[in-house]
Structure formats: structure tokens, C-alpha cells
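C-alpha cells for chain A. Residues wanted.
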């Protein structure tokens, strides 16, 4: 569950990076970014509003799912960034073109590939940091060590001498 939550947080950062970087692309490269292209190709769109909602759902759902996968893998420094690059490569050089959803990355403009590679690096970096913070919060801020003292409220409820 923590990996999925971290994947959602990382997807927010990634989406922000994609949205802000898209304006740097030249005019001919500014066609919809891959999450929307995938939704359009799979005919999950409907009207424009539904297509946008489905794109967000698919994008954040995939981020949560891959975040959950990351959480069960061994980790070390930099592994989030490398995982993000791996997700990009497996997706845009692997399963997406293999399923004939989109053309492989090498057939898209270099600037778009750089944008998506950078966005996946942001995603992976934020994923690893978010997961680390969530695990620490679960253990420290939201956990109760066996030798922890009772809170003031708990002591009051139990009464004197207990």
C-alpha cells in the first residue's frame, strides 16, 4: 500500500514536470503527451472531458501500480531514478509498441523523448523519497513502540494507578 501511495505522490510531481516542460517543445512536437495518446488509441476517451479524466485515471493508476512494484524490490541510493528510467524504457521501447498502442520511442522527436525521460527520472526520484518518508512515518510517527508511554488522554481514561 505504501508503494502505491508513493507512486501517486510521484505521479503528481511527474505530471507537473510534464506539464511545465511541454511548452519547451517545438510546435511540431507539441501533440498530446503519451498518457493521452494511449487513452485516445485505446478508445477510452469519449468526449474531451471524459478523455481527460480517463487519462488522469490511467496515468495515476499506472504510477500507483508501478510504485507498488518498486516497494517490494531491494533498494539502495539512486534506485528510484534508475527504476523511473527502467519504467520509461520498458514502456516506450517495450510493451507499448509491442502491443501496437504507440510507435517506439525512437520514432518520436528527440525533444519529446528527453521530456519523457526527464519526467520518469523525476517520478523515480520522488517515488523513492516518498516511499522512504511513508515507511518512516508508519514506523515512527504513526507507530507505537512496545515501551511507549501512554498519552495523557489514555492515562486519564484508564484512571489513577493503572
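Reply:
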Amino acid at each position: 500500500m505504501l508503494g502505491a501511495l508513493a507512486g501517486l505522490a510521484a505521479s503528481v510531481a511527474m505530471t507537473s514536470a510534464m506539464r511545465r516542460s511541454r511548452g519547451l517543445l517545438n510546435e511540431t512536437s507539441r501533440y498530446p503527451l503519451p498518457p493521452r495518446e494511449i487513452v485516445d488509441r485505446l478508445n477510452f476517451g469519449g468526449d474531451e472531458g471524459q478523455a481527460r479524466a480517463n487519462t488522469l485515471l490511467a496515468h495515476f493508476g499506472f504510477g500507483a501500480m508501478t510504485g507498488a512494484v518498486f516497494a517490494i524490490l531491494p533498494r539502495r541510493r539512486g534506485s528510484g531514478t534508475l527504476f523511473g528510467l527502467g519504467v520509461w524504457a520498458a514502456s516506450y521501447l517495450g510493451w507499448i509498441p509491442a502491443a501496437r498502442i504507440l510507435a517506439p520511442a525512437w520514432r518520436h522527436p528527440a525533444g519529446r523523448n528527453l521530456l519523457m525521460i526527464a519526467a520518469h527520472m523525476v517520478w523515480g526520484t520522488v517515488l523513492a523519497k516518498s516511499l522512504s518518508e511513508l515507511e518512516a512515518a508508519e514506523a515512527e510517527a504513526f507507530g507505537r513502540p512496545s515501551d511507549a508511554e501512554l498519552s495523557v488522554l489514555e492515562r486519564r481514561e484508564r484512571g489513577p494507578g493503572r
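The radius of gyration is 21 Å. DSSP finds six helices and no strands in the chain.
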